[in-house]
């Protein structure tokens, strides 16, 4: 049985900031939703179902906030689903929403992912001690720093590659009016910033943001009335454990298998040649070269060469995170959906000042937990033939 | 739509799960039971989806360590809803409908005894206007029960009849946390807990977990002679705000039932009503005929593990198709304060 063709016809996001004191959680979601609906030329009344995603409830201090948000999200009287798959959740939520259409159950689905981190304290929320479980009280950077060091050792990458990514993404964000951090950065400036978790410097880390992203996903019939639908060519999710002796946390098996499945679904045999733009979940700069390898864009150990050669810049062979990426805006629950939404904007030719000329196929990527949950999709300007 | 059936079900329900910080250990034997029922191994499962809550566990990412129960190297195709596992079953059913996979294993878990449940659930309310007042679950349910009594829609006797029948049926359920019918008079003589609710009108605080296996077409037929084919699956939410809805009705349950074409012909219904008067509301909202047998397992009043209670209703209903007790059954799940969200799953023998 084949999937019903589905497409993104509306993308909306908020202005991301450290603290959005002007809106409640409901207001934040509506800001993104209203933009997505306007983009789609639709009203909330036309929507068949709502799918909500966000990272842990402790980030805002509300248990299952979608219950309280139901009215504001226009979900009263409709099916309402709430997805939570750690940092990959924004991507997983978009995939669940698309499956509602691809399964033939609904025609018009609205999905929204958010995080209003200023309502609570994310570091505390991640640091609740659990008996018999390894504590990770150093924050996400502390958890990932050893993986980065291990990557540098294994690949022999020059130590400034991470700074090159950070300078690129922060500078790209200048072209994105919604980005949280909007500051031109040079490689020298990044290298001169404070060392936080060796080898990760301050300017190589993502901010903590309030923000939301929403997508309108529709079936083929509805998509026909859109002038620029982003067709979904493939979706994939994979999970592996946090800890296991045989686990490779630098190049996780779940990510490699997810990518292989995704490329197969999307009919892509050479991703580096066939993908025109990629939004990859890079909360710490070194994850760009690491994920380039994990996703199969390059051989293992060669990701940094693509970055170093400038091929991941706006004018490179594979522009990555033209929006500024997670390094410039990180409302955790929404960050994955922002990657998926930005990929859709690229193939719709609607990415504004950070548009990649002639982008026809784009990747949206998200990961979560201890590099153990992966969600990805490929969207295209053309309807898939497979 | 593809033909998809419930073919496996395992559960544990208990007053408290002593000595464990998480539910991964609880899940391992349940998954083993599912493999035994189906004759399958982990490799035969195309998709995994779980339902649980971080707030109940008192920590972020409570589902992360639960996937260790699966043994996820090599990695698996997996997702999670921060909802009752009945909604995880919905996501798994969708995944099978897309044609991407043919089989799925759904599980849910919750350890209510780790905190004060009625207070924890107050955090589900509007954080800006309601939660600061800490109205707890039982008090909200009591308001709902009082509204119905004052409107003449039910009385304390009708509520006691639900309890008596449930606890009598629960005597045959090895997983029941509370069991033993007495008489309506005896129940009505017991003290009030949160007027007009007595303790027996409220589901007991329960720890537990459950797992359900779904399969499409021939994969289902290779497991069971009488798979419980899902012929209707839908869910609807109401708004949360208590002042904006008629708490004596359940509009979302009514809409959920309508979305599956109604429940005509259903012989047995497992209804997720954590408070006795809610069964009365749901019987009407779901349009269950007078002769429909409700909650032969004893229902939630005999045991209601959070984030699993709804899924258990689907599993219990499916079992009645497997063993030939009924040809058409319904499982129902609820979530949120005062029956805010409702899901209906109709299953039939074919």
Automatic annotation (TrEMBL), chain A:
Gene3D superfamilies: 3.40.47.10. Its EC number is 2.3.1.9. Keywords: Acyltransferase, Transferase. It is an enzyme of class 2 (transferase). Coiled coil: none annotated. SUPFAM superfamilies: Thiolase-like (SSF53901). One of its GO terms (molecular function) is acetyl-CoA C-acetyltransferase activity. Residues 245-372 form the Thiolase C-terminal domain. It holds the Pfam family Thiolase_C_1. NCBIfam families: PRK08313.1 (NF006180). This is Acetyl-CoA C-acetyltransferase. The lineage of its organism: Bacteria, Bacillati, Actinomycetota, Actinomycetes, Propionibacteriales.
From TrEMBL, chain B:
GO terms for molecular function: acyltransferase activity, transferring groups other than amino-acyl groups. InterPro entries: Thiolase, Thiolase-like. The keyword Transferase applies. Keywords: Transferase. Coiled coil: none annotated. SUPFAM superfamilies: Thiolase-like. It comes from the Bacteria. PANTHER family: ACETYL-COA C-ACETYLTRANSFERASE, NON-SPECIFIC LIPID-TRANSFER PROTEIN-LIKE 2. This is Acetyl-CoA acetyltransferase.
């Amino acid at each position: 049985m084949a999937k019903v063709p589905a497409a993104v016809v509306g993308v909306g996001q908020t202005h991301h900031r450290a603290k959005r004191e002007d809106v409640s959680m409901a207001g934040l979601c509506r800001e993104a939703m209203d933009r997505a609906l306007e983009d789609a030329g639709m009203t909330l009344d036309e929507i068949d179902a709502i799918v909500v995603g966000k990272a842990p409830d402790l980030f805002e201090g509300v248990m299952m906030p979608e219950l309280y948000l139901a009215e504001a999200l226009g979900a009263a009287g409709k099916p309402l689903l709430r997805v939570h798959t750690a940092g990959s959740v924004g991507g997983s939520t978009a995939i669940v929403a698309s499956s509602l259409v691809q399964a033939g159950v609904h025609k018009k689905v609205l999905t929204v992912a958010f995080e209003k981190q200023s309502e609570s304290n994310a570091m505390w929320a991640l640091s609740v001690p659990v008996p018999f479980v390894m504590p990770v009280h150093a924050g996400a950077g502390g958890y990932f720093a050893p993986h980065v060091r291990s990557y540098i050792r294994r690949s022999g990458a020059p130590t400034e590659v991470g700074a090159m990514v950070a300078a690129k993404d922060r500078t790209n964000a200048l072209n994105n009016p919604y980005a949280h951090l909007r500051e031109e950065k040079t490689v020298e400036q990044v290298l001169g910033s404070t060392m936080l978790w060796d080898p990760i410097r301050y300017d190589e880390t993502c901010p903590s943001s309030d923000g939301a992203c929403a997508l309108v996903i529709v079936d083929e019939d509805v998509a026909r009335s859109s002038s620029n639908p982003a067709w979904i060519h493939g979706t994939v999710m994979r999970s592996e454990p946090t800890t296991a002796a045989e686990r490779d946390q630098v190049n996780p098996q779940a990510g490699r298998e997810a990518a292989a499945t995704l490329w197969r679904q999307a009919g892509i045999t050479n991703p580096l040649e066939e993908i025109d733009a990629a939004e990859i979940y890079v909360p710490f700069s070194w994850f760009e070269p690491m994920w380039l390898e994990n996703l199969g864009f390059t051989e293992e150990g060669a990701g940094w060469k693509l970055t170093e050669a400038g091929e991941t810049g706006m004018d490179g062979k594979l522009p990555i995170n033209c929006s500024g990426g997670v390094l410039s805006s990180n409302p955790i629950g929404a960050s994955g959906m922002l990657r998926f939404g930005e990929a859709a904007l690229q193939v719709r030719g609607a990415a504004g000042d950070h548009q990649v000329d002639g982008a026809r196929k784009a990747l949206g990527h998200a990961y979560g937990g201890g590099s153990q949950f992966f969600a990805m999709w490929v969207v295209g300007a053309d309807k898939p033939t497979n | 739509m593809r033909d998809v059936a419930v073919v496996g079900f395992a559960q544990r329900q208990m007053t408290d799960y002593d000595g464990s910080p998480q539910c991964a250990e609880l899940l391992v034997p349940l998954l083993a039971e599912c493999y035994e029922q189906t004759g399958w191994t982990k490799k035969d499962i195309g998709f995994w989806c779980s339902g649980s809550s971080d707030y109940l566990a008192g920590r972020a990412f409570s589902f992360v360590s639960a996937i260790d129960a699966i043994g996820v190297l090599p990695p698996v195709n997996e997702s999670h809803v921060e909802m009752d596992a009945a909604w995880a079953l919905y996501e798994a059913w969708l995944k099978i409908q897309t044609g991407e996979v043919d089989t799925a294993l759904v599980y849910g878990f919750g350890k209510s005894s780790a905190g004060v449940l009625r207070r924890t659930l107050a955090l589900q309310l509007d954080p800006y206007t309601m939660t600061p007042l800490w109205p707890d679950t039982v008090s909200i349910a009591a308001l709902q029960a009082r509204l119905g009594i004052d409107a003449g829609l039910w009385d304390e006797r009708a509520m006691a009849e639900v309890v008596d029948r449930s606890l009598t049926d629960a005597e045959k359920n090895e997983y029941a946390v509370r069991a033993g019918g007495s008489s309506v008079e005896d129940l009505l003589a017991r003290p009030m807990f949160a007027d007009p609710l007595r303790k027996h009108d409220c589901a007991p605080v329960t720890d537990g977990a459950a797992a359900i296996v779904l399969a499409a077409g021939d994969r289902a037929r290779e497991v069971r002679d009488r798979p419980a084919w899902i012929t209707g699956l839908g869910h609807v939410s109401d708004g949360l705000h208590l002042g904006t809805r008629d708490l004596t009705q359940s509009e979302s349950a009514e809409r959920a039932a309508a979305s599956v074409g109604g429940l005509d012909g259903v012989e047995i219904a497992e209804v997720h009503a954590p408070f006795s008067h809610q069964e009365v509301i749901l019987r009407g909202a779901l349009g269950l005929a007078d002769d429909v047998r409700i909650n032969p397992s004893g229902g939630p009043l005999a045991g209601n593990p959070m984030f699993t209670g709804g899924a258990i209703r689907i599993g219990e209903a499916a079992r009645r198709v497997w063993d030939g007790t009924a040809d058409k059954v319904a499982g129902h799940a609820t979530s949120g304060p005062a029956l805010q969200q409702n899901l209906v799953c109709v299953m039939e023998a074919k």
